Amino acid sequence: MGGSNEQGNIAPYAQKIQKEFNILPSVVIAQACLESGYGTSLLASQGKNIFGTEGDFKGESVIIQTMEYVNGVPVQVWNKFRKYPSWEESLRDLANLYAKGTSWNRSLYTAVIGEKDYKKALKAIFDTGYASDPKYTEKRVNLIEASALTKYDASNEEVYHIVKKGDSVSVSAKAYGSAQCRFNSGMAWSILTLLK
After folding, report:
1. Which residues neighbour 123 within 8 Å (Cβ) at sequence distance 6 or greater?
2. Which helix (H) or strand (E) holds 137?
3. What is the pLDDT of residues 107-132, one digit of tens each?
4. What does the angle CA 11 – CA 6 – CA 113 come to, to the nearest 5 degrees?
5. Which pLDDT score, from 0 to 100, does residue 47 have?
6. What pLDDT, in 10s, does the model give residues 134-148?
7. CB-based contacts of 170, cutoff 8 Å, min separation 6
8. Which of 68, 81, 85, 136 is within CB 3.0–4.6 Å of 131 for a Cys-Cys bond?
9. Regarding beta strands 182-183 and 73-82, do their DSSP bridges make them parallel or antiparallel, or are they unpaired?
10. What whole-number distance in Å separates Cα of residue 72 and Cα of residue 147?
11. Global pTM?
């Protein structure tokens, strides 16, 4: 898995996270891509752990050597990391961390929840001490912008439209800025799925 493949593979999970936890998918996808080497890191392949979450998950773990930054200097260290059964559990675990905080500070990540600006959300994550890389925010912002990941931040909502004689699918879809339109035959309404 690599590059835009990982983005596409985890995007549906990131969008589920958005609906449940109100965390921007672009932020989660950028984190996942860079923190797992686009899904190719040893930790991602052996443990389905795409965020470098330490500890164990339901008793499962993997021990791997990683690079940490100590006083701005990269250092190789051995750590015990959570081993997940799938990518989705890894994403959900990260979302739970943001939503519930840590045992010592339950409100540590509250600035991430509900934030609509990916730059502010990433800065808030960095400011908590989540990452030791001094270029953490910059790298993720660059990936979001270069890969147009904000397209995953759009929420789907259903809009109801009264269909009048002469209305067509293409005209209705265009009027609502959508490529999708579903008409319910025999009824006086249609449903358009919009991406705002």
Report:
1. 137
2. helix 136-146
3. 999 999 999 999 999 999 999 999 88
4. 40
5. 95
6. 999 999 999 999 999
7. 181
8. 136
9. unpaired
10. 28
11. 0.72
